[in-house]
Amino acid sequence: MTIPILICDDSGVARKQMAKSLPAGWDVEVNFAANGQEAIDMIHQGLGDVLFLDLNMPVMDGYQTLEVISKEELPTVVIVVSGDIQPDAKKRVIGLGAFDFIKKPINSDELTAILQKTGLYAETDEPAQAAAPAVDRAASHQGSISMFDAFQEVANVAMGQAADLLARLLDVFVLLPIPRVNLLEISELQMALQATEDNDTYSGVCQGFIGSGIAGEAFLLFHDSSFKDMAKLMRYDGKLNELVELELLMDVSSVLIGACIKGIAEQLDIAFSQGHPVVLGQHVNVGDLLSNNNWRWTKTLAIEICYSIENYNINCDLLLLFTEDSLPVFRDKVAYLI
């Protein structure tokens, strides 16, 4: 009997990759949702006996979706598929009723093993002939997927890997956003930063990276109001001063920049060499941190990730800027996702 399954993810790239990862012999009808609210509506329509659920989405995220499914006792088996691989993420979704958790990028063998545990799929010597074409048609019905969708999904996975490292280091839960990806003129970037200035001051670090025809700079902009709680998490009991704050800044930037750049490199199957970190400034307005940078290009692919830590006043922005010359190579490297 054909099983209706539902793939819920705000990324068209992720939905397509999830559909292509399904076992070839599984007799299914594949449906798609872009957020949790759409998924709930489709489950009510009988279109999701199995739900593959992302966590970080607009409108209704994965955690909220699981809460609704539990409250309404909806008839669906939920398998969370996410780039948020923090230990607490898996614990939380299992606690909310998910059957299992699988990390992005998806490992097909791991997915098959989980599906076998549900009892809704069993490998056979003679796979169903119509199943694979049906899955392929469903994936193709996602329509055209832009390069920016692919860039965003690569950033999403790398963001989760960096958050996992920070969460394990500090024994916290890192709140993750949806990465923002834009192609900007450098002048537009500077104007955008000035427009977002608030009453807080920032301290910043910059680190360059290069490899296989792709180059750029990573900026960590740390809210100065976050130093007190960060010192507490790092178990520093002394008086805060600029030297201590600089040490905390360098520690956090090493984790987030290093892990995020490594996560992107692994997905592109390349290796980046990283330069020495450079302190941009301490206790200044966000626009001033980047105003003195000698830009060597006119356009940039900008990826912005805003990290925060649950139950602590800790916020920092990771800004990855790829050079204009890197874009053709970057496009070629992510073409497999489209």
Automatic annotation (TrEMBL):
CDD domains: CheC_ClassII (cd17910), REC_CheC-like (cd17593). The keyword Glycoprotein does not apply. It comes from the Bacteria. InterPro entries: Bact_response_regulator, CheC-like_sf, CheY-like_superfamily, Sig_transdc_resp-reg_receiver. PROSITE patterns: RESPONSE_REGULATORY (PS50110). The keyword Cytoplasm does not apply. Keywords: Chemotaxis, Phosphoprotein. Pfam families: Response_reg (PF00072). Residues 4-119 form the Response regulatory domain. GO terms for biological process: chemotaxis; phosphorelay signal transduction system. The modification 4-aspartylphosphate is found at D54. This is Chemotaxis response regulator containing a CheY-like receiver domain and a methylesterase domain. It comes from Hahella chejuensis (strain KCTC 2396). The lineage of its organism: Bacteria, Pseudomonadati, Pseudomonadota, Gammaproteobacteria, Oceanospirillales.
